[in-house]
Amino acid sequence: MSKVGFSVQVLLVSNLEQSQAFYRDVLGCDVTDFWAVRDDFALGFKLMQADQAEDVKPNKPGRGQLIPWDTYAYVETHQELDQLYQQLKDKGAGIVQEPSTTEADWGSWKEFAIKDPDSYVIAFGSGKKD
């Protein structure tokens, strides 16, 4: 079977230049005309200009979900997650979910979430304590 090398999420945005600036300056992506990628495509987006702002439709919450996610990315450890949180906060990211930890039989899960200029929510999580 053929192997997929990476994937990107296509985001319809209301203002391409504003989104490019956010993904470059806040999220730390390498940004071209359409691409916004970070860490060798571990996190990747294709930003597409919407014809009308009302065409932009971030996800609605799922059943039992308080904060809807449009993208969910993983980091290796809780310490790396804390570092990423601080970096994004220092760059002015809109935090919509402060870091929180859930303890369960299977282990520890920690996550936080930010939103972009179109209210797409990008969540980050880690399942490994330091």
From TrEMBL:
What is the name of the protein in this document? Glyoxalase
**What residue stretches are annotated with the VOC domain?**
5-127
Q: Which Pfam families match?
A: Glyoxalase
Q: Which domain of life is it from?
A: Bacteria
Gene3D superfamilies found in the cross-reference section: 2,3-Dihydroxybiphenyl 1,2-Dioxygenase, domain 1 (3.10.180.10)
